[in-house]
User: What shape does this take?
Amino acid sequence: MSTRLNKFLVEAGVCSRREGDRLIEAGKVTVNGKKAVLGQKVEGAEDIVANGKKVAVSDKPKIYLAYNKPVGVICTSDPKAQDNIVDAIGFPERIFHIGRLDVASSGLILLTNDGEIVNRILRAEGKHEKEYIVTVDKRITPDFIQKMKKGVLLEEGKTLPARVEHIGYDTFSIILVEGRNRQIRRMCDALGFNVTSLERVRIMNIHLGDLAVGEWRHLTSGEETKLLTSL
Assistant: This one.
């Protein structure tokens, strides 16, 4: 039975479906020695190579990790990129990150060898919560909090309403259900504030807790079950 090549790459634990399409477009995937094309279907018995490595569907158990990303680590699985997240973790099996945190931000990010869950999470964008603790460069005002709650007009449109709590002189927490590029930093900038520290402390039911910066852990069975069920 044939399947789309990008889905095959997901099932083989190579990358997410979206990243698979990027690899195919970049000419980094071949099937039986020929460059692959978007939308191509495969049976699985072909000689499939991605990024110079032969690809086969793995029967290894699924891995789900929580990682406290330090500032400076880049959310890319490109082995040529300095300070990439895969090298930073040093996990013995092939894994890739779910979503992103910009290089200047720290905190919780999930990694897995289960490409399908990445697609499920991306499809659920706008439905699942992500919580952050943010520090800015001056005193936070009630007006700032109210505007962050209601949504801020960015270049591509107004952000969705968010749950925002003032927790200190220059610090607040915010819970989003969308994930625009550098969204919180851009929202603050639009209101005249500069972010000096941004840490993600929760993704859906997974909490950062006391996980030390630069450390990772396996999800508990309860976390894993709830995460997969919610998707």
Remarks:
- DSSP finds seven helices and 17 strands in the chain.
